[in-house]
Amino acid sequence: MLQPDAILPQRVARNPDQPVNRVDPLADFSPAVLVSLGAIIGCAAVFSGACPSGWRLVSSFLLAAFLAFGLARFSPGRRIFLRRLAAMMTVILLAAAALAWRATSHEAAHHDRTPIADGQRAVELTGWLEAIDRSASGRQRLLVRLVQDANDPRARRVRVLGNAASIRPGDPISLRAVLAAPRPAAIPGGYDFAFHAAFRDIVATGYAIAPADAGPELEQDELARAIARLRADMSGHIRGRMADRPGALAAALLTGDRAHIDPGDVDALRRSGLGHVLAISGMHMALLAGGVFFAVRLGFSAISPWARRHDAAVPAAWVALVFAAGYLLLSGAAIPTQRAFIMTVSVLGAVILGRRALSLHTLALAVTAVLVMQPQAVVTPGFQMSFSAAAALITAARVWQAGSDRQARNGVLAQIRLFFGGLGTTSLVAGTATAGFAAFHFHRIASFGLAGNLLVMPIFSTVVMPAGVLGLVLIPLGLDGLPFALMEWGLSVMLDLAHRVADWPGAQRHLPAAPGLVLAIFSAGFVLTLLVRGRWRASGAALIAVALAGWAVLPQPNLFISDTGLILARDETGQWVVSDRRRSRFAARVFLEARAVAQPAPAVWDARCDGQGCSARLGGLRVTRLLALDDWQTDCARADLIIADMRVPPPVEQQCGADIIDTDVLERTGSQSLYLRQGEIVSVRHARPAPRQGS
Fold first, then answer.
1. Is the confidence at residue 544, as pLDDT, over 60?
2. Which CATH class is domain 122-220?
């Protein structure tokens, strides 16, 4: 692929005696990078819920054109080149948007054709057990792939809370369960399980009413079932080699089986900033593929006659690719692992082709490949965090290499300092790059995440994963005892350090949720900070500052209505109160977490109640929860906002002076967050004017 400098005329200095040495601010905007940016913007335009689809595409087109032509003004010598890139980026943007739109429509159509439950009655399920994990409460959660329909060959999965009994992954299973369609986001802007379930072919969720039984023999998905059985056997073997807690963590790291991890260990890892080790992603794949690559390369290099005629890196890269592919299948091929594998393929492919392995060009190719296969990944935290960390590390490595003194690397002590200095720098850069995205999605930050990573990652990188990979290789020979014993020691030390850091005061801080616009501005600033050189890099830092300032000053909603009619609001003392503690407890908890509220459980509101309903003054509004329509005229005269537990006839709604949210509205729109100062109600699916405040 042609580089920008290859198609531009050479610059001529104004004064031949004093040539001007300028820093090109756009040197990193190669065609591959622009293509990946166009793909990101196009896919995000479709999957963002901020505005209607048509406006999203138009605004994204304008953003791409503004970006390309605006950059051309900063580099006059590249105007022709950037105009061509602007046209190419626009085409890529529209193609990515069309791809994402087609994927969304296809998934929606597939699930519309496959309703299997109504959430009221138990149904019989027959299929095979694909995986077992645990819910937040510690209960077993079964992922069952149903028997394929002759009229629809696509996979259909259900996820149920239940007891697998003696059924192992890969075995046929039969159970009775109460199922319902996957639920959308519990709060506006929250995690939308229904959206992500559609792309995983999960058509229903629910709970089993009895332990599972062995199902009839199947002749479908033989390869997938064999891989599931292999994963289960490997997980059981690894856990059998170690004590319970480190063994469960080792199984999660090597096979992706997280069903046996102690919930306290999971919480400690997250509070200490080490939650990323639980997801088999770029770091795990890099340690495995990198370890295999360097070991094989060293072996081939030791064969002197062969090494003089051939490059040992090429066969080492091929062997590392085979191991990476095997690890992808063994770990369950989750979406983060797929992204890590694509990045590994890009890096090792660059080695095979004789290109620079770690570069923004390679990263851009990986981004584009991921979005071609999984356009919905653009809105997931895993995609944003993994690629932001990789981009920041590549940029930091380039700066490090440019400013490092090679003479200072000689000597054992210098190498040790270089190793730990590089490890600390890596943790700092990766942690800083992902902190904003993690805080946006999870509403919390680990205050001592850098300290936790500096304490644990040397053990994880030099002991835990190398020993685990060696143990996996030696399992067929029966020689895995010593490697797994070493891994067990490393994991025990790692868990002990994680718990110590997690117990420090203020180890985890909660942050209020921010709107998607904040993330968009932050992401644009992050990209400019990494890609633009010279003094123009400050423009990216300025955008990041604007996003953080907006996050800090944007007001938070002060009244929430769940999709079942639960009312959660601030009372006159500033405390959060709830209309019913038994209804929508999950939605209430998620909403309070998104507001960074430390209050453990909201109190029941102080309302005046009768047979018709309850009324209270909340957030400056006279709010009524209506249970009957017998005296609706009085309720409409006294209230500003009415939440009705039934369908309100249109004539009543037209004559009522108050704003009404009834069961039809909540079923159509989902939960509602009220921003009274902004004068609007923002829901999961739409926005409309807020009710008038009473005097």
1. yes
2. mainly beta
